[in-house]
Amino acid sequence: MSAAPPAAAAPPLVDVHGLPAVALAAPDGSRATVLLHGGHLVSWVTPDGRERLFLSSRAVFDGRAAVRGGVPVIFPQFNARGPLPRHGFARGRPWSLVDARVDGTDALAVLRLADDAATQAVWPARFVVELTVRIGGPRLDIELAVEHPEAPAQDGTPPAPWRFTAALHTYLRVADVAALQVLGLQRLRMEDAVRGTEQVDLAAQLVPAGETDRVYFDAARPLLLDDAQARLRLSQQGFRDVVVWNPGEAKGEALPDMGPGEWRHMLCIEAAQIGQPVALAPGESWIGRQVIELDEAAPG
Ligand SMILES: O=P(O)(O)OC[C@H]1O[C@H](O)[C@H](O)[C@@H](O)[C@@H]1O
Fold first, then answer.
1. Which of 130, 147, 191, 270 is labelled catalytic?
2. Which PANTHER family does the record match to this protein (predicted)?
């Protein structure tokens, strides 16, 4: 898909390891960088100057592969739960910049991905996906809007309903994955891909120990991530499920695009829609959002 021209007020694109990106700067000093490749947020810096997202030192920026870190957009299929390549195709496609500006105390960017010949070759659906990244204060707000347009495809095929799963696959930077806890997941139905079990999680907190790969379903309450450096509050709307992932030592060291030992400094807490795929008829749309806030009462 060719990139749409940015809106008049949009800042010039910057270069991130050879890929075009939009750089956001809010009046309070918070900053973010979003690659057009994948609509991929790769950096979020809070006003205190601290990077809050993990980005692998060996991330591949070749304009095809998914970047290891930041916030990959997973659409229209989560993981291997369908016929498409793992995690769908949105994270490997070129998105276009629709808007980027300062809005009061915030800075925001809007990026768009629409179906084209390449997506239709693997997934015969007409779609428009818009990602809005908004920063300001100690807060990151990411919205994913998915629309089923009413118009027929270019070849005249009438629009038909389709279903998708999705996630904002957020890689949080943590001091030490073995010394943190996630609160708010108790009493949720959970699929544990490491143990191959499905159960209701009764633990008051999740303390990742080794490889962790879990889907928690119908996670309605906000989560807290406490580590030595900060307390983050994560909330979501639209997305019903939460994924918590860390590859652990053996798989983390084996990932070709993860630097040595770096798996210790990341934890993915993903706002996801997995258990109940969303069905959209022509003209319908769906919105999911993940909001991450630094709790300033905590140390760090
Ligand atoms: O390596 P990727 O394709 O980016 O996937 C990374 C991870 O994503 C999700 O969190 C899944 O639950 C994991 O099973 C998967 O390993």
1. 270
2. APOSPORY-ASSOCIATED PROTEIN C-RELATED (PTHR11122), GLUCOSE-6-PHOSPHATE 1-EPIMERASE (PTHR11122:SF13)
